[in-house]
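Input (structure):
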């Protein structure tokens, strides 16, 4: 008899305190811009799945926002969403940055995930930022936190050891038939990805003024023929909470809005591999973060 390698498939997610590098790592693994990264905490709102196909496994990555102290209804819903995602995954990667001391936040998350059915791998992220000596110390400190299935250091920025991490996580997935068709890299509706690209463009440069007050809704996407080529005509609304925020987003004489449109169009064009015509409107929805009806309408 020949050695038979069982096919494995399942769900994995990266958790960890804000800014630990979860989104960047997810992107590095899937190799496409599916989640939003920023150097400010808590920008990942939607649960985005990326699917990594390998000859003997299929790894489905779920990207979650970080848990945080809920101050609004949106905050509470996000935390519920995070816990629901954690409880559905086969492997949870607890991300701990190499350049920051293990702290109470990491221990709190570690304790919470140790109660789930999924296996837990500690991922020491951003190893490009520290010396070998400091990395060794961090690996020791992390290993002492909990009995992890494995502890893997890597850098999503340089790609160092990311393949090893994928191998470790894939080997911990349950034996299972393929769960998604070949070639599919995400089952997130395109609309959500497009909305995120617009939101990211709208936040560019004004995150300090409007950290969590922007939401984007895609109203319509039409495929049009123009000069012999097809293009996607996208109608989207950018929601802010107050008229003063609307002024910030639009900028003097519409200058910022122009930049937002240009950046978003470029990114969406790459995503859809198509010519894009973008119709953006900025609307004020008062206190949308506290209004259940509006939250539902905005997709939360
Ligand atoms: N040098 C270095 N920086 C990294 C690496 N991974 C992520 N970063 C940076 O760390 C910051 C946070 O990364 P994210 O991937 O957005 O972190 P996150 O954990 O998803 O953050 P939240 O969405 O806030 O929970 C960004 O500025 C990244 O560019 C890495 O491997 N090396």
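Output (sequence):
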């Amino acid at each position: 008899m020949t050695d038979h390698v069982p096919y494995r498939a399942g769900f994995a997610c990266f958790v960890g305190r804000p800014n630990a590098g979860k989104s960047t790592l997810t992107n590095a693994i899937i190799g496409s811009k599916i989640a939003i990264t920023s150097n400010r905490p808590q920008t990942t709102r939607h649960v985005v799945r990326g699917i990594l196909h390998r000859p003997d496994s299929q790894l489905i990555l779920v990207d979650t926002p970080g848990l945080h102290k809920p101050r609004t209804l949106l905050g509470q819903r996000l935390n519920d969403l995070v816990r629901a995602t954690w409880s559905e995954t086969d492997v949870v990667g607890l991300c701990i940055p190499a350049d920051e001391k293990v702290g109470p936040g990491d221990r709190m998350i570690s304790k919470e995930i140790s109660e789930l059915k999924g296996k837990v791998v500690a991922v020491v992220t951003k190893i490009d930022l520290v010396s070998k000596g400091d990395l060794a110390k961090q690996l020791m400190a992390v290993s002492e936190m909990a009995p992890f299935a494995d502890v893997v250091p890597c850098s999503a920025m340089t790609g160092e050891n990311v393949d090893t991490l994928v191998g470790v996580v894939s080997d911990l997935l349950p034996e299972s038939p393929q769960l998604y068709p070949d070639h599919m890299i995400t089952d997130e509706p395109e609309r959500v990805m497009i909305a995120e690209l617009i939101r990211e463009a709208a936040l560019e440069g004004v995150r300090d003024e409007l950290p969590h007050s922007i939401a984007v809704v895609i109203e319509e996407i039409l495929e049009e023929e123009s000069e012999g080529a097809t293009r996607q005509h996208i109608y989207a609304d950018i929601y802010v909470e107050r008229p003063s925020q609307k002024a910030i987003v639009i900028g003097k004489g519409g200058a910022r809005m122009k930049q937002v449109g240009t950046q978003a169009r470029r990114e969406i064009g790459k995503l859809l591999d198509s010519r894009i015509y973008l119709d953006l409107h900025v609307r004020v929805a008062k206190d949308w973060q506290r209004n259940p009806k509006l939250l539902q309408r905005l997709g939360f």
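Notes: The chain has nine helices and nine strands. Confidence is low (pLDDT under 50) at residues 33-46.
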